[in-house]
Design a protein that fits this description.
- It is built from twelve helices and 20 strands.
- With about 475 residues, the protein is of the alpha+beta class.
- It has three domains: about 5-45, no CATH class; about 55-150 and about 310-485, SGNH hydrolase (Rossmann fold, 3-Layer(aba) Sandwich); about 155-305, Jelly Rolls.
- The strands form six sheets. It has a five-stranded parallel beta sheet, with helices on both faces.
- Strand 10 and strand 11 (about 260-265) form a beta hairpin.
Length: about 475
């Protein structure tokens, strides 16, 4: 039996060794491989109990529990009323920022809004993003607010098949012989082109003549049905346009409402992007489109819209940092932008950059700048708004803290946006800044998911409300200046 004094000195020596190690260990965890990480308590952890305060988002939640628009469109005879409304908005929004304070960047978009009624025009906003907007989150609320305000209806651009999170805006199904091919996961050995369309992907149906896909003899169809959980503005639409190309054979198309044929047609061979249009006398509860051909064209998008107003498209690119635009075929993108009458592009990326913690994000700033320049080259005076990265949390002991690189990534996004003459909206600060994500997760009801990265549907509404307020505030400022001039 060992003497107590020996046991004491053994334990003391172990403690001293561990204490020495703790002086040299980094505070963050050390990644061993994709499955294992190693973490050792530092001297700060051992000698002090650190209490983390989460951001107070009480006012953010309170000020954005709004059912009606918070501003009105000013008339020429109501400038004073506009000024009162605009002043009140200053206290409840986080403003859009402009390079060199040049608000005229958005003027072409605002002019297009004003021309909707004059020209019976249908204009589009493309909302690109990563998994933060997947399932039509954020976009759907923004779409609803803008369509209620300026007209328009329908869910906008959709792929032929949904491979990830389904959208609550419309119920969509398809035959089993479809496959989606994405620019993000493109394999050069399969395709020798970059014509993936405005969604960054295209769909094909399988048949025996297509060596890249499995053979199938079943009917090819896609079907859409009204959703009972969607915003009301998307439950009405007057037209469906199917964008296709790269087909070497004619394709027969049949459209059905309640299983009854009401439209049919044939579209001929085409290399460039074409579309066929199906008009509806009244919005059907559901409709199905059936395709009959020996070979599948490339289907780039399906647009379900009104014939005038605003269409807002949710284009979610899971796993992407937003670098598809320099990889895509620019001529095809330019053609589709013109065909769809796109007047504003919103980019919302960043959550896939955060886990890669490095000292400098100059590389990301340069990459994002190249994407923005590529977009602006597609169409003269096309405004772009970059929405900055949200707060994200990592667990540290028994509490959650913001990733240490959030501000660096946000700053890189802002610098790239300003350098490319684009607008910037700081979502990180709008949601409360440092250590705000835990407050969204622990809110009642929860405003963010327990991955401490993605917003819930309710949280997405609040973010979208804040962005909408910021956009409408700038629209009113534009009108005020226009009226005074």
């Amino acid at each position: 039996m060992k003497s107590p004094i020996k046991v004491f000195f053994f334990l003391l020596s172990v403690f001293i060794i561990l204490l020495i190690i703790s002086f040299f260990m980094p505070e963050h965890e050390i990644k061993i491989n994709n499955e294992f990480t190693f973490r050792f308590p530092t001297i700060n952890n051992l000698l002090s109990h650190r209490k983390v305060e989460y951001a107070d988002i009480t006012d953010i939640i309170k000020q954005n529990q709004i059912n009606e628009d918070t501003v009105i469109i000013p008339s020429k005879t109501n400038i004073d009323t506009f000024r009162v409304e605009a002043d009140s908005l200053k206290h409840i929004i986080h403003n859009i920022e402009f390079p060199k304070s040049d608000k005229s960047i958005l003027y072409n978009f605002f002019k297009s809004i004003d021309n909707i009624k004059k020209k019976n025009d249908l204009i589009r906003i493309l909302h690109y993003g990563d998994s933060q907007i997947e399932g039509d989150r954020i976009t759907s609320f923004l779409r609803n607010k803008l369509q209620l305000r300026f007209g328009g209806s329908g869910p906008g651009l959709l792929p032929c098949i949904i491979t990830n999170t389904k959208s609550p805006s419309i119920t969509q199904s398809a035959s089993n012989n479809w496959e989606l091919l994405s620019l993000i996961s493109k394999k050069d050995t399969v395709f020798n082109h970059n014509r993936f369309g405005i969604l960054g992907s295209f769909c094909r149906y399988q048949n025996s003549d297509d060596t890249t896909l499995k053979s199938s003899n079943e009917d090819t169809w896609i079907e859409f049905e009204k959703s009972n959980i969607s915003y009301r503005s998307v439950r009405k639409f007057k037209q469906c346009r199917v964008f296709y190309g790269n087909n070497s054979a004619d394709v027969n198309v049949e459209a059905y409402i309640n299983n009854e044929l009401f439209w049919f047609g044939t579209f001929a061979t085409a290399n460039n992007v074409k579309f066929f249009k199906i008009n509806f006398v009244s919005t059907p509860d559901n409709f199905k489109i059936k395709f009959i051909s020996a070979q599948s064209p490339d289907f780039y998008a399906i647009a379900i819209d009104d014939i005038k107003g605003i269409a807002v498209d949710n284009i979610s690119l899971r796993g992407s940092s937003g670098n598809m635009f320099t990889k895509a075929d620019n001529e095809q993108l330019k053609q589709m932008l013109n065909m769809l009458n796109v007047k504003l592009v919103i980019l919302q990326f960043g959550v896939n950059v955060v886990p890669n913690v490095v000292n400098s994000y100059k590389y990301y700033e340069r990459s994002l700048y190249r994407q923005l320049i590529a977009i602006k080259k597609l169409q003269a005076d096309l405004p772009v708004i970059v929405i900055g990265v949200s707060d994200m949390s990592i667990k540290k002991d028994d509490y959650y803290v913001s990733y240490p690189n959030i501000k660096k990534i946000r700053n890189a996004q802002k610098k790239a946006a300003f350098k490319a003459d684009c607008c910037f909206w700081d979502m990180y600060e709008a949601m409360g800044g440092k250590n705000s994500m835990p407050s969204w997760v622990f809110a009642k009801p929860a405003l963010a998911k327990k991955d401490f990265t993605h917003f819930t549907h309710k949280g997405s509404e609040i973010i979208a409300q804040m962005f909408y307020n910021a956009l409408l505030y700038e629209y009113n400022v534009y009108h005020n200046k226009k009226t005074i001039n």
